[in-house]
Structures are given as C-alpha cells and as structure tokens.
Amino acid sequence: MSYLLGIDIGTSGTKTCLFDEMGNTVANAVAEYPLYQPEIGWAEQEPEDWWNAVCITIKEVISKSGITADEIKGVGLSGQMHGAVLLDKNNNVLRRAIIWCDQRSSAECDQITDIIGKERLIQITANPALTGFTASKVMWVKNNEPHIYEKINKILLPKDYIRFKLTGEYATEVSDASGMQYMDIPNRKWSLEVLEKLEVEREWLGELYESQEVSGKVTEEAARLTGLKKGTPVVGGGGDQAAGAVGNGIVREGVVSSTIGTSGVVFAFSDKVIIDPLGRVHTFCHAVPGAWHVMGVTQAAGLSLKWFRDNFCIEEKRTAELMQVDPYFLMDQEAEKVLPGSEGLIYLPYLMGERTPHLDPFARGVFFGLSAKHEKSHMLRAVMEGVVYSLRDCIDIIRDMGIETKEVRASGGGGRSSLWRQMQADVFGADIYTINSSEGPALGVALLAGVGTGVYKDIREACDTVIKVKTKQEANWDLYKKYDEYYKIYKQLYKSLKQDFVALASI
C-alpha cells in the first residue's frame, strides 16, 4: 500500500492529511497562525509561520499514522492563491506576504490597466487587473516600498514558498500561477509581454509545471525538519480552488462546486478557454492538463460568519466549549429557528471589498432592513443567506456564459452545515450534493501526487477511484420563489450604495 500526503496552506491555518490509495484519510493535523491587518483593507501573513505549521503538521501526521516516511509515495501542495512572497538573493523573506484578500492596490490596478490596456490584459491573462492578484501587490511594493522592490530576487506564491523550503526549487504550477496575472492563460505559459511591460524580470518567477508533474524532491534539511524521507517527490499541486475542485471531483463538464471557506467560490470545469469580457468571473488554468476553469469569488463568505461568531456569539462559544461541540453547530440551530428571508433582513457580505461580480475594493458589509423585531438570531441567518446570495451572483454569471451546471457539489467548512447547503439549494434553484470526503484541497493535491508518481493513470481515474456522492438535498421551489424576491433587492442594494462606499473610503 502506498500513501500520499496533501498539504493545504490556508489563510487561518495549514492542514496536512495522509491518504491511502483509495482516498481514505489515515491521519490529519492542523496548525493555525495569525493574520495581520495593519490598516483597514490590508491583509498580511508571515511566510515563516506557514513553514513552521507545515513542519509541525507533517511530523504529527506521520506520528499519528503509524507508518514510516518511506511509505509516502509523494507530496502535493495546495495553498491560498495570489499572495506575494518576496525573497532576496539570499532567500530571505523581504517583508510579510501580502495575501489574497488585501485591498490596498486599487491604484496599481488602474496603473497596470493603463500600461497594458484593458482589452489586451484580458486577452492575455483572461482577467482584468484586480487587487487580489499578485501583480498589483508587487506593483504596490514598487510604488510604496522601493527599498524592498530593488532587492527582489524571487516572487513566490504561498504554497510555492513551502515548495522551496521542502525541495530547494523555485517552481509553481499553472492553476495557482494563473492568479498572479503574469501568465498567458490560453497558452499556459508566462507572458513575456506582460512581464516586460510591468518591468518584472522573468528570472524572478519559478519554473512553470502542470499540476501533476513532479517539481522537486525533499531535501536532506527538509527531511530533518519534517520527518519526510529525503528524495520524496513533490508535485506541482494546485491553488486551493483548483485543488479543492479535484478533491471534489470537478474534473468533467456539468459538475460545479460551491465552496464556502474563508472566501466563497463557485467553480466550473471547461475543456476550452471561455473568458467573460467584463471580467466579472475568473478564467484560470485547471489542475487537469488541457483544461481550464471559470470561477466566481466572493471575498468574505465563511469570513462573514467567523466575524459574526467572534464578535457577537461569545455565549455560543462558551456553551460549545462546555458541550464539547463546534460553536457553528449551535449557531446553525439558532439560525434554523428563523424563517427563510430573515423577516426582511438582508446582509451584504462585503467585509473585504468584493470580486464577483462587482470588482470593488471599496464595498463594505451592510445589514439592510433592520427593525426592532429583529434579534441576534435574525442577523445570524441573514449573514448566512447573504453569503449564499453572493454565491448566486457567481453561478448566474457562469450559467449566462453557457457553462453547464447539472450538479452542484457543496464543500468547504460551510459545506458541512446542512442548513447552509439547503439555503444554497433553495437560492440557486439546484439540488446540492456532497461527497464522501471533506478534505478538499488536501485530497486534491494528494491525488495529483498519486498521478505524478504513477499510483493513478490520470486525474479522472484518480477521482473515479476515490470520490463518491454521499448526500443530496433538493431545492424547495416555493422557497426559491421567496428567496428570488429578496435576491432582487440584494442585487439592487449594491447599485444604490456603490457611490456611498467610495465616499466613505475617501473620508
């Protein structure tokens, strides 16, 4: 029996999972780390925190599993996308990594658009310039921290910094690199035109692999720190969304995932390049060779519920600790007592600006329709419903682009909530499915490692071997009609408030 290791470097923590060839979880471990917000709209993390978490969790997983390190056939890496890890010529980290949800670089997005041209930028990179992407973050450093910029020798994504620490290789793969805005997406390679115009040296970027290809092997030093065997292959892996899609079986047309993690993502497979000319959704290379994916993103999905938990659910957290249950379990029970529609209370989940469909770093969270009859439980349900409305924004655009959505699979932390899944079914007007594994990105990159090391013939065979549908929740069409009326108001609210968001930010 061979074993495969999947490592997912997330925003709140790193999760490392060991799987057997049938996709069964043998052992897992999680280590958390902080998020730094020096100013409103900024978001940074320490790359060394990620590496420490990786070392801790790998050791813990090997210890728990009872296997030896030489039984691990390969390692796959997943991680939060778009972060900018800047290294100098001695491989020292030059500053905290500016991560995916940081919104400081709106001026740099305008600058990049002016330099390359709006239409040409979308032609090459399949997306408009966004504050979330790596290119605008690097441009911000150039404009605001020139003493840092002049020392740059390498630009790495979060998971690729871990790859460097494990293997000594500067490398990335197509799915994660697609979100840097330095790639020619249709041709799956770095765009020399974009790099030249943005004055980014090609040598600053790693070698570009397909997701299942072996990109390096564990070094002696990394083996000592992690407990892995020296020489263990490490494959390209994937950005967290592409990796999670593989782990959810989104490797064929017609199957779509709706993921509620820190962010929220609707992810659709495509065997050809389909680009939204308005740039409302992202087109990236998929972790499946020769395939792409279209992805709608809401910035603060699970983050909205976590924000509400941390600030307004102190009693639930204390009670959950005494009951030895997850606080979200108790929050679900509270929200379930409130009628669908939260009695006219609507939440806009724009705590960190928004991507799909608004591309607006100035957007902010809103409770609309608040009255004296509303209690905390109404606000709680409204948060959950607002997140689902934002995901419907995504799925409606994907449908309008002609992409099939025959089956929607729920995943992420929010996918574990039966209530949140039913909300998605009722708001989307689609049946919602779950699969037999909840490990998501970690499973996805473990399967990619299995393909790269010969355990499976290809990614589809790996998914067919491991992934099975577990549950199905049908849409309630009466509730769909009710939610549709609230959704129309939800969509109108952004239009009504757009200029007010800008005015607020200027004060």
Provide a descriptive summary of the structure in words.
By secondary structure, this protein is of the alpha+beta class. The protein has 2 domains: 274 residues, 2-Layer Sandwich (Nucleotidyltransferase, domain 5); 155 residues, 2-Layer Sandwich (Nucleotidyltransferase, domain 5). It has 18 helices and 24 strands. Helix 11 packs antiparallel against helix 14 and helix 12 crosses helix 13. It starts with a strand and ends with a helix.
Number of domains: 2
Beta strands, count:
24
What integer value in Å does the Rg equal? 22 Å
> What is the terminal-to-terminal distance?
62 Å
β-sheet strand percentage: 15-25%
Question: What descriptors fit this protein?
Answer:
18 helices; globular; 2 domains; alpha+beta; Nucleotidyltransferase, domain 5; 5-stranded mixed beta sheet
What is the topological layout?
Elements: E1 3-9, E2 13-20, E3 25-32, E4 44-45, H1 47-65, E5 72-79, E6 85-87, E7 97-98, H2 106-116, H3 118-125, H4 134-144, H5 146-149, E8 154-156, H6 158-167, E9 171-173, H7 174-177, E10 183-184, E11 189-190, H8 192-197, E12 207-209, E13 214-217, H9 220-226, E14 233-235, E15 238-239, H10 240-247, E16 254-260, E17 264-270, E18 282-285, E19 292-298, H11 302-312, H12 314-323, H13 327-336, E20 346-348, E21 366-368, H14 376-400, E22 405-411, H15 418-428, E23 432-435, H16 441-452, H17 459-466, E24 469-473, H18 477-506
Parallel strand pairs: 1-5, 5-15, 9-12, 16-22, 22-23
Antiparallel strand pairs: 1-2, 2-3, 4-7, 6-8, 10-11, 13-14, 16-17, 17-19, 18-19, 20-21, 23-24
